[in-house]
Amino acid sequence: MQKKLTLAVIALMLAPGLASAMCSRDHEQAMTCAEGTTYDAETSSCVPQTTS
After folding, report:
1. Residue, of 23 and 10, whose pLDDT is higher
2. DSSP class of 32
3. pTM of the predicted model, to two decimals?
4. What span, in angstroms and rounded, lies between the C-alpha atoms of 21 and 17?
């Protein structure tokens, strides 16, 4: 009985850390560029806007 209780307590202590580790995956962060520039996915940077 004591062994099961100890394992349950350990699992509950680790659960929040594991949950937060899982949430950090597959999230994209928005890139904000200065006025007059736009984000270029190929170079992963802001480049001057061209007018056509």
Report:
1. 10
2. -
3. 0.38
4. 6
Residue with tokens 């904000």: 32
Compute how many other C-beta atoms are within 10 angstroms of the C-beta atom of residue 44.
Answer: 8
Domain that holds residue 26: 2-48
CA dihedral of residues 43, 48, 51, 52 (deg, nearest 10): -20
Mean pLDDT (whole number) for 10-37:
71
Percent of the chain past pLDDT 90, that is, above it, reads: 15
Instruction: Identify the sign of the CA torsion 28, 33, 38, 43.
Output: negative
Alpha-carbon gap, residue 20 to 12, rounded angstroms: 14
Number of domains in the chain: 1
